[in-house]
Amino acid sequence: METVKLYDKHPYETTFHATIQDIQYDKNTTLILDQTLFFPEEGGQCADTGTIDGYEVIDVQISKGIIKHILKGHIKLEKGKEIVGEIDWTLRFSNMQNHSGEHIFSGIVHREYGYDNVGFHLGMDVVSVDFNGPIDAVNLRRIEKEVNQVIYENRAIRAYYPDEEELASLDYRSKKEVDAPLRIVEIEDCDVCACCAPHVLHTGEVGLFKVVHMMNYKGGVRIFILCGQRALDYVFEMDDNMNAIYHMLSANNESVVKYVRGLIETNNALKQEVFNLNKKEVHRLIEQADDNQRYFFMEELDKNLQREMVNNLADRLEGYVGVFVGNDQMGYRFILASHHADTTKLFNVLKSQGAKGGGNALMVQGYMKTSQNTIEELLKSQQ
């Protein structure tokens, strides 16, 4: 017999009584109850947490209408026993806020673009929505404002099971084909969508809707969002970070972008200056290279300059040449080359000290973490 879903009609209740229908044991204890307030992992949303008779519920799953409650460890309970369950209200209400906010968001996107919500994940930390079409940043910000306007208007949210006649007349969204009975969540003048999860009763309870990030995904977009307390916590964190930046830069909200842009420009100029100085040093070292100095060790060097240096050394000298960048603590990024010998043979010698990498007879590049003295001894043994 299917489990009675108390959360459908009583999403705001936190405690309930039920009777154990079955018990299963492995490393944990699985209970099947006649009814439950625990929402299982379903529809992209994480399961409720809480306790049954004081024991921790670590997971809730559903299959063919039967809901399984997984309790941590091996708990001695009896079939037919009446239990008291209590859900974690903080997580439940947070999920209700975020799921209802997602419906407002997806409903507006569907109305304006015709896109379908093709993916949804509501975990304890991350909330993401996938749409099968592009949205640019300007329009995403506009939609974000529209969602919050719907929240401010405190519109009614109704969750119900329509009969066949009523369902036939409904124009509703659905992420997948759903077997009857179909549960509909309707947001006044905003959205109608098939959904199995608990929702708030009015949009005002969503509190705040915030877009956090957007990325291209499978020809459409994946958008990360937060609602309610999660959104407020995110805003607080951003505010704390900005205040710290203001303090470090002696800036304010009006001047901080100018300050940061100036720091980036200064940093880029310094990088270019360092690159130019390194290039001069590379050319100087190339000119002094001879049969007695064909391997060079440098603390820092741009990868392109390293390759340029090795190519020039190989043009000047017969036999092996190489440039090692790093130090004994961090290890060395190296490039070996030769126009006259098989470089892979020298690389095989370095492998004895843990060198990793690859290449061909003309050039090999890789990394090894050992001392400069050890590397130099290996190189000398091959001259």
Features:
single chain, 383 residues, Threonyl-tRNA Synthetase, Chain A, domain 2, Diaminopimelate Epimerase, Chain A, domain 1, six-stranded antiparallel barrel, five-stranded mixed β-sheet, 9 helices, 20 strands
Summarize the SSE layout with pairings.
Elements: E1 4-5, H1 6-9, E2 15-25, E3 29-33, E4 35-36, E5 50-52, E6 55-63, E7 66-71, E8 82-87, H2 89-113, E9 117-122, E10 127-131, H3 137-152, E11 157-160, H4 164-168, E12 184-187, E13 191-194, E14 209-217, E15 220-227, H5 228-249, H6 256-288, E16 295-298, H7 303-316, E17 321-327, E18 331-337, H8 343-351, E19 356-359, E20 363-368, H9 372-380
Parallel strand pairs: 1-4, 16-17
Antiparallel strand pairs: 2-3, 2-8, 3-7, 5-6, 5-8, 6-7, 9-10, 10-15, 11-12, 12-13, 14-15, 17-18, 18-20, 19-20
Helix pairs in contact: 2-3, 6-7
The coarse overall form would be elongated
Q: Helix share of residues?
A: 25-40%
Distance between the termini: 81 Å
**Uncertain regions spanning at least 5 consecutive residues:** none
* CATH third-level topology of the largest domain: Threonyl-tRNA Synthetase, Chain A, domain 2
Q: Number of DSSP strands? A: 20
Strand order of the largest sheet: 2-3-7-6-5-8
What is the assigned CATH homologous superfamily of the largest domain?
A: Threonyl-trna Synthetase, Chain A, domain 2
Structural class comes to alpha+beta
What is the mean predicted local confidence, pLDDT?
94
Count of DSSP helices? 9
CA-based gyration radius = 32 Å
